[in-house]
Amino acid sequence: MADTSSQHGARKVRPRILNRLPPHLRGELLHMAVLRDRSVDIRTDKGGARVEMRFDEAIAETEGVDGLQIHRAYWVALDHVVETVRLGGRPLLKMADGRMLPVSRAYLDAVRAAGFF
Q1: Cα separation of 49 and 36, whole Å?
Q2: What is the 3-state secondary structure (H, E, C) of the chain?
Q3: Average pLDDT for residues 24-53, to the nearest whole number?
Q4: Of 50, 80, 89, 106, most Cβ neighbours within 10 A?
Q5: Residues in CB range of 37: below 8 A, 6 or more apart
Q6: By the 8 A CB rule, do 116 and 84 touch?
Q7: Percent of the chain beyond pLDDT 90?
Q8: What is the per-residue pLDDT for 110?
Q9: How far apart are CA 101 and CA 117, in angstroms?
Q10: Distance between CA atoms of 113 and 117, rounded to whole angstroms?
Q11: Contact predicate 66/6, CB 8 Å
């Protein structure tokens, strides 16, 4: 993937985490979620897969993508957030693939600093 400028100002390069996915799933990184201990669901615009690893290690391998941890169990690529939503007062981010991911109070200030809510 060639370097391109993101709308948030950072340069995008292909993150190392994509090398852990089968070649047909190596698209634009959208978001990641902890499934259970040492298991991370990695989602791209071409689909997703479960990878056995710790979440903090997965986040470290997203270098080159303008992203943010929004919850103890969720990380998002900022360029693929399409909408902010409040459901029953709880903040959510709607992603390009239609998934709604929760923003926890602990990460809300960082999400706001990134330009959301």
Answers
A1: 14
A2: CCCEECCCCCEECCCHHHHHCCHHHCCCEEEEEEEECCEEEEEECCEEEEEECCHHHHHHCCCCCCEEEEECCEEEEHHHEEEEEEECCEEEEEECCCCEEECCHHHHHHHHHCCCC
A3: 95
A4: 80
A5: none
A6: yes
A7: 85
A8: 97
A9: 14
A10: 9
A11: yes
CB distance 52 to 29 below 8 Å: no
CB atoms within 10 A of CB 69: 19
Q: Please state the separation of Cα 80 from the chain's center in Å.
A: 8
Cα–Cα dist 70/104, whole Å? 6
The rounded distance, in Å, linking the Cα atoms of 114 and 117 is: 9
CA distance 91 to 103: 6
Q: Dihedral (C-alpha) 31, 28, 80, 42: value to the nearest 10 degrees?
A: -10
Q: Quick one: average pLDDT of 79-106? A: 97
pLDDT category of residue 69 using cuts at 50, 70 and 90:
very high
